[in-house]
Design a protein that fits this description.
mainly alpha; 56% helix; Four Helix Bundle (Hemerythrin (Met), subunit A); DinB/YfiT-like; 163 residues; 5 helices; globular; two-stranded antiparallel sheet
Amino acid sequence: MTTTTTATKQFMTTEQLLKHWQGHRNLTRRVIEAFPEKELFEFSIGGMRPFAKLAVELISIGGVALKGIVEKNTEAYNEEGFIPKTKEDILKKWDEETEVINHYFGQISEERFQETFNLFGQYEFPVYENVLYFVDNEIHHRGQGYVYLRALGIEPPFFWERF
């Protein structure tokens, strides 16, 4: 009887995953920039939240969640702490959170990405699935932003130009 061993290769490094996520964040930042100030805070379609509120949600998740993962903190999610008044407020906070994400992401070992973590005391998934959720959630909300921009007669950034 012959035994065959198959070597598996890693699909993606953590550095590649972070680059992928930051590419999406870069594109979302450009969507924020494309909005006129008033419409960023007020325009919506079909009862959906204005894009400023969607951006605040995204700002309130990534860095905070990664910090929670690193520090093993399962406190509940809260987006009440940041109440922007201008587009510039949002962009400034977006850039600050990008640095927070870079800082904490780099502290998560390859092994930790496979560990189950109860994010915000609500979502019990492996760490890598939580990170993929952050990306998926951002893509979902950015899609809403694209619809808003098109409804306003504004051409959104090309979705494939992430860097």
